[in-house]
Amino acid sequence: MRIVIDEDIPRELTSMFSSPGVDARHVEDIGFKGMKNGDLLTALSATCDVFVTGDTNLEHQQNLARYDLAIVVIRPERLVVDQIKPLIPRAVAAFATAPKHVVTTIGVERRPAGQ
Q1: Residue 35 lies in a domain
Q2: In whole angstroms, how far apart are CA 9 and each of 28, 43, 63, 70, 114?
Q3: Nearest partner of 9 among 33, 43, 31, judged by Cα
Q4: Which of 3, 33, 61, 97 has the fewest CB atoms inside 10 Å of its own CB, making it the most exposed?
């Protein structure tokens, strides 16, 4: 299984997403850093199975039915290393069952403002 990690996830964490049968690469390592989301997802559809990102708005900005890959969103309270690390094992466990064309969210639920 081929996994690509978005640039909003620190590159230093890439190896933590690898496991037997899972090849994890960071967008920087494959030359896709700085690409707009639509272009990135199009390129990844032909080359990987799962895209991991911290972009919680991706599903609202893109028509995910167009892209032949699963998307796993890591959602800590803050997108910093110390809060991302504990979520990585859950994200890796989700790779095998994450459906294509939709977002699988790993992490904290957001509460509406005022609650």
Answers
A1: yes
A2: 11, 19, 22, 17, 29
A3: 33
A4: 97
What CATH number corresponds to the domain at position 31? Answer: 3.40.50
Q: What pTM did the predictor assign?
A: 0.91
**Do residues 70 and 59 touch, judged by C-beta distance below 8 A?**
no
Q: What is the DSSP letter of 43?
A: H
**Digit-coded pLDDT (tens) for 67-101:** 999 999 999 998 899 999 999 999 999 999 999 99
2-5/50-53 β-pairing = parallel
Question: What does the DSSP 8-state code read for residue 110?
Answer: P
User: Is 41 within 8 Å of 67 (Cβ atoms)?
Assistant: yes
Q: How far apart are CA 2 and CA 95, in angstroms?
A: 10
Tens-digit pLDDT profile for residues 5-40 = 999 999 999 999 998 999 999 999 999 999 999 999
